[in-house]
């Protein structure tokens, strides 16, 4: 019995061409390409979650964010102050942090030439699958897996530790899937983006 | 494949709406929408099923549908979906995740109450792991957890009665008598027993429980649920009093699985005619890690080190009203003096005297404050740590 070839065409994150990187959360609810799996409604929801996290950590828009890992750059995050209703809606810290991180990660990978094209359900939410921006994939074929995680407030060491933990999860089998790990910390804020290719 | 794609997109839309409904507290809509998502995702997976070369899509769709089936409580459906995925050629990573999901399905099966009716004040405790056979469990793994659960119930009851945390001395007689813990004959689920909170007169007269016992039970389970999800901020809201909260976390940690011997500890109860299940599946070591990651309140610029000490717990001094002190001797003979915050000494630290322990502490300068403590598994005594500020 032959095993199918699960190898993905090698696609790398390209360093963003503008410094600071512009991460405009407002675009999640409006400017969406037809290829992305993040619909305007879902994007709007993610933008709200991220805004609640940033607001709770006493930031104001525009917020400076450090992006580390695959490249080291500054980013500027633009967002709308959440309404009281929005804060109450996203009062589950863990859930809001996770979804806020999805939103920031989606915009960050877009600035690196990739796009979240598909998602699937997993135990703790969704996992996302990346491909070249604008490409039309057949479901999950040839896509790169993206693991996103959020920390509401933590130190750089915790961000590193979460990245290691996520990489370890993708390493526990002998698989050959490439993966991109994005950990968003809303306190400082800092986002670490790391790509892993297996040969 | 267009139809598969459309079905999958529809499933994800329903999953989004379900998540929105859950956040809005509309549980009926959440259940209905999750079921809709399952119907579409399962259909997409079965349509992709005949082509075994269509990977990873085939197995990802099955895994996604099986996850939704577990959320819906459709355990048999989940089992079938996982089986179909594994019978193909899933990539190793997805195969590994499918096996994890299957373990979840079997654990939920153990939590089902088969042939037993739980009354309002009763709950089923289920253990599963290498130390558990069909209807048999290693006595220490079981007895210690019943004892810890009992402590959790009394501490919660004392807190709900508005009492200041009791660092020493016995429980009030009136409370001890009204909240006695009774254990049923074990059942072969993995290893399951019914625990009943009540008092002797209630048992004999078969009266339904008082509101207070139900409230206590509900409070204990919701706290355990928060710890199992690592939601310490939520627990802070539920238990604002620090000694009580610290005590709760430490006892929940002792109830948690230790790894292979006990992999899951589950609680099933019937509250307001609805079954509530709390599964502690995070190993103690990981709970400890999550606790480390919790933000600490320290003065700006203060150097903080997380350290782990393994050694023999020798003596303790609990005379102070605000904190106790313990001494631990590691394998090199070095004595470590560690301060024990309120809430930890009587239920957690004292039962481990003269035992080999592994403890985590926060070191600020020369002062070490205990965060968590557990019995060691027989390795040599060591000290390790990482810096932070």
Largest interface: A-B, 43 and 50 residues
Q: What fraction of the residues of chain A are assigned to beta strands by DSSP?
A: 25-35%
Number of strands of chain B: 13
Alpha-beta classification of chain A: alpha/beta
What is the straight-line distance between the termini of chain B?
A: 53 Å
Mean of pLDDT of chain A: 85
The poorly predicted ranges of chain A are none
The count of β-strands of chain A is 8
Q: State the oligomer.
A: heterodimer
Distance between the termini of chain A: 23 Å
**Share of helix of chain A, binned:** 25-40%
What kind of sheet is the major sheet of chain A? 8 strands, mixed
Structural class of chain B: alpha+beta
Helical residue percent band of chain B: 40-55%
Layout of helices and strands:
The complex is a heterodimer of chains A (199) and B (389).
Chain A (H helix, E strand, L loop, with lengths): L20 E4 L15 H17 L6 E7 L3 E6 L5 H6 L3 H19 L2 E9 L2 E8 L11 E8 L4 H16 L7 E7 L4 E7 L3
Parallel strand pairs in A: 1-3, 2-8, 6-7
Antiparallel strand pairs in A: 2-3, 4-5, 5-6, 7-8
Helix pairs in contact in A: 1-3
Chain B lengths: L1 H22 L3 H22 L8 H16 L2 H12 L5 H20 L10 E7 L3 E2 L2 E2 L1 H22 L12 H6 L1 E4 L7 E8 L1 H6 L5 H18 L3 H7 L3 H14 L8 E8 L2 E7 L3 H10 L10 E14 L5 E7 L5 E7 L3 H5 L6 E9 L2 E9 L7 E6 L1
Describe the model.
The complex is a heterodimer of chains A (199) and B (389). Chain A is of the alpha/beta class and 199 residues long. In chain A, 29% of the residues lie in helices and 28% in strands. In chain A, strand 4 (114-122) and strand 5 (125-132) form a beta hairpin. In chain A, helix 1 (40-56) crosses helix 3 (93-111). Chain B has helices spanning 2-23, 27-48, 57-72, 75-86, 92-111, 139-160, 173-178, 200-205, 211-228, 232-238, 242-255, 284-293, 345-349; strands spanning 122-128, 132-133, 136-137, 180-183, 191-198, 264-271, 274-280, 304-317, 323-329, 335-341, 356-364, 367-375, 383-388. In chain B, the strands form 3 sheets. In chain B, strands 8, 9, 10, 11, 12 and 13 form a 6-stranded antiparallel beta sheet that branches. A 5-stranded antiparallel beta sheet of chain B has the order 4-5-1-6-7, with helices on both faces. The chains are: A alpha/beta (199), B alpha+beta (389).
